[in-house]
Write a sequence for this structure.
């Protein structure tokens, strides 16, 4: 893992700390429906308060496309943010740069917190504009990035800004990177990757990278249909990317070449339509009737993956194994989540999961707390699993001064 500074390495006492957070949380009818990202950010804010910093939280929210849009205001996040830090007051600046932001920041005393309006209300954010980054830098003395889940975006508050001020990773960023490193870069072996989701086409890079890293690859979800089809199995009306068959065969050949054992579904839960409580059958994958489709992996496959999990020491999980939003097609995902939780509790498995649907499935099963680590990231987690360099992580690593430049904090 690239070296980067943490809160322990920088002096923030009395200083204005620009804290890049990811407050891009799901909101329904003006109410935050999942506060996970806010709660996971809180320890960083608390640590900065403890050190008498003036904490200036900044984030994007939604995709307002470079101009102010009330629907994407961060103002409704003031109360949930305050709640997450034990009810402490959070001041709000209705613009993230300029006089209004300067006024709010100037009023902060050590240990106080302000939230700036949505960074994406300015075009310069997504354009990684040096001018916009300088306008942000004007507001702070130190930069802390705690937005791992936005680290795949080369935006001004993530990339350019990291080079303008002494920069460090926040506690959440640190935890995310530590977990992913433990899972893929220097894991306890053997390692199993559990990959699901609808489409092989969106996960080709991920599968290629993971095949080179892990000992066992278990595949579920509709993407497994494409692999089964590529190997000559008739799968009825199942979701399948037939034009991906060649790519799928290449992946399986790569796995053989790399000595990566691949577990594909051997049985499946099928139905005529995807609807809650619809009539289902559990059958071998080579017996799918013409008018039916695979909507979950079957119990034999679950048992087989469960047995494989008992033999490994590390798990990386991305993607649900069936159409989990529609019961009963959540059964395999929930059963395996329980198995993973049990092995993790027993100290036999280090388990790391991430990605929007995966996290939603774990939350629905009430098992989020029972894995070793569940990432707050969706897209950034996927890009990490593709072996890509994340601009937000690269910027922090590049911001570490060498002996010749000296410590700037
Ligand atoms: C996310 O929710 O995945 C991050 O906040 C990034 O958001 P974006 O996909 O709009 O850049
Ligand atoms: Mg996204």
């Amino acid at each position: 893992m690239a070296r980067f500074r943490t809160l322990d390495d920088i002096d923030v006492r009395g200083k204005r700390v620009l804290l890049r957070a990811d407050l891009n949380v799901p909101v329904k009818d003006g109410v935050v429906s999942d506060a996970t990202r806010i709660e996971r950010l809180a320890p960083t804010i608390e640590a900065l308060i403890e050190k008498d910093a003036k904490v200036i939280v900044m984030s994007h929210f939604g995709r307002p496309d470079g101009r102010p849009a009330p629907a994407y205001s961060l103002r409704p996040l003031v109360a949930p943010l305050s709640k997450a830090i034990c009810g402490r007051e959070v001041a709000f600046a209705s613009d993230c740069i300029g006089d209004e932001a300067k006024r709010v920041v100037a009023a902060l005393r050590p240990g106080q917190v302000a939230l700036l309006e949505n960074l994406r209300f300015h075009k310069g954010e997504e354009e990684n504009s040096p001018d916009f980054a300088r306008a942000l830098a004007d507001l702070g003395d130190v930069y802390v990035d705690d937005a791992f889940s936005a680290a795949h975006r080369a935006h001004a508050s993530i990339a350019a800004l990291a080079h303008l001020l002494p920069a460090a990773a926040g506690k959440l960023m640190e935890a995310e990177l530590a977990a992913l490193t433990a899972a893929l870069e220097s894991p306890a072996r053997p390692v199993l990757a559990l990959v699901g989701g609808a489409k092989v086409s969106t996960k080709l890079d991920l599968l290629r990278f993971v095949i080179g890293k892990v000992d066992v690859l278990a595949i579920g979800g509709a993407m497994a249909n494409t692999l089964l089809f590529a190997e000559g199995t008739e799968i009825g009306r199942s979701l399948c990317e037939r034009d991906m068959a060649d790519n799928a065969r290449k992946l399986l050949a790569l796995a053989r070449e790399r000595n990566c054992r691949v577990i594909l579904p051997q049985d499946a839960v099928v139905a005529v339509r995807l609807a809650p409580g619809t009539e289902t059958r559990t059958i071998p994958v080579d017996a799918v009737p013409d008018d039916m489709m695979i909507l979950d992996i079957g119990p034999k496959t679950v048992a087989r993956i469960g047995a494989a999990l008992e033999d490994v020491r590390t798990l990386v999980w991305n993607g649900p194994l069936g159409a989990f939003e529609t019961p009963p097609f959540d059964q395999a995902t929930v059963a395996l989540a329980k198995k993973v939780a049990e092995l993790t509790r027993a100290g036999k498995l280090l388990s790391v999961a991430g990605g929007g649907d995966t996290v939603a499935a774990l939350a629905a099963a009430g098992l989020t707390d029972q894995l070793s680590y569940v990432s707050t990231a969706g897209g950034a987690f996927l890009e990490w699993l593709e072996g890509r360099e994340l601009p937000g992580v690269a910027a922090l690593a590049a911001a570490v001064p060498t002996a010749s430049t000296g410590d700037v904090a």
